[in-house]
């Protein structure tokens, strides 16, 4: 696959039908999705169709996204459905080392098994690593994009000098970004706008596992903690007992919905996704049928671990894009973007 461009390797889908769905709906997740699932987690997880074409967005080319493509996040801006993602590889003319960088593409077609993209920014990174002594000098990853004040704010995990933190880059058009800098300590941001504030859920390591915390900002740059305590953590003895990671947020009416990864055995290698809802982003109600989604079969492209569930929909299905790996960190990490779908009229009830 290394000889193909990012766009050409994707299977052609049905852009006309997808455009109609984008115009008709006002949110990507709703109470309808919540109500699809009953109280039996096995039935819920088995209700999903894992695409036979996974990974639907594989690593490609021979430079910055030749090794991994991961961390999908979706934002509608100026009438376009934009996919922000992480690539990993070596760029010519740089330090010769592999780094994580951020890119963007437009989603132009979607079915239950395929996605079609159009490269933006010439297929080049939109946010690159900084210098060796900077806060993001090693990796920039985990993008979370939000429209705020008519511009696109992309928050991201930054790895470099000092502790891991959340960085920020801002764009007028969703494609050309300028870095703002180090915003706060934390990783894997999930941002959403509420009552004129940018709210951010992010993860911090505690007792060998991650828990979720909440901060907010009136200008999108300077954040204050909403609570000193974690707002969401796993249940002892359960599927998410050790760690909660890589949340994604959506809003529907007066409610907020969160999909997230959970693990009972390692800090950052989730087997399942859970679903929760809230009216204030501070107090969360987990779905009684959690987990509602699980890894694919052993040996499949998403059979080892899964992260970052980004929700979309077609006319008849809810669709998730997510980072999947066929193996584990210890022996075959292979992060690429996978897809699964579930019919809107039948699931785990």
Automatic annotation (TrEMBL):
Gene3D superfamilies: Glycosyl hydrolase domain, family 43
Source domain of life: Bacteria
PANTHER family to which the protein is assigned, alphabetical: ARABINANASE_LEVANSUCRASE_INVERTASE (PTHR35279:SF1), PTHR35279
Protein name: Family 43 glycosylhydrolase
Protein source organism: Paenibacillus lycopersici
């Amino acid at each position: 696959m290394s000889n193909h461009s990012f766009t050409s390797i994707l299977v052609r889908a049905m852009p006309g039908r997808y455009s109609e769905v984008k115009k008709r709906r006002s949110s990507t997740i709703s109470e309808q999705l919540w109500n699809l699932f009953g109280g039996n987690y096995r039935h819920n997880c088995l209700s999903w169709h894992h695409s036979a074409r996974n990974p639907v967005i594989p690593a490609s080319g021979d430079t910055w996204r030749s090794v991994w493509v991961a961390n999908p996040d979706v934002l509608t801006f100026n009438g376009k459905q934009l996919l922000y993602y992480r690539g990993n590889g070596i760029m010519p003319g740089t330090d010769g080392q592999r780094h994580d960088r951020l890119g963007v593409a437009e989603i132009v077609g979607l079915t239950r098994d395929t996605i079609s993209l159009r490269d933006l920014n010439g297929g080049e990174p939109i946010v690159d690593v900084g210098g060796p002594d900077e806060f993001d000098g090693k990796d920039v990853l985990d993008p979370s994009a939000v429209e705020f004040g008519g511009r696109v704010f992309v928050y991201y995990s930054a790895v470099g000098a000092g502790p891991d933190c959340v960085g920020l880059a801002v764009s007028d058009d969703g494609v050309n970004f300028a870095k703002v800098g180090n915003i706060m300590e934390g990783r894997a941001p999930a941002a959403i706008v509420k009552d004129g504030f940018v709210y951010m859920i992010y993860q911090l390591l505690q007792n060998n596992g991650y828990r979720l915390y909440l901060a907010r900002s009136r200008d999108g740059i300077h954040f204050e903690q909403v609570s000193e305590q974690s707002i969401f953590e796993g249940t002892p003895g359960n599927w998410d007992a050790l760690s909660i990671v890589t949340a994604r947020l959506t809003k529907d009416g007066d409610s907020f919905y969160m999909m997230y990864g959970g693990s009972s055995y390692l800090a950052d290698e989730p087997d399942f996704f859970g679903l929760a809802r809230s009216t204030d982003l501070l107090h969360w109600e987990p779905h009684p049928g959690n987990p509602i989604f699980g890894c694919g079969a052993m040996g499949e492209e998403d059979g080892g671990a899964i992260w970052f569930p980004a929700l979309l929909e077609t006319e008849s299905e809810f669709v998730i894009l997510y980072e999947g790996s066929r193996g584990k960190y210890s022996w075959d990490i292979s992060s690429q973007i996978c897809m699964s779908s579930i019919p809107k009229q039948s699931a785990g009830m």
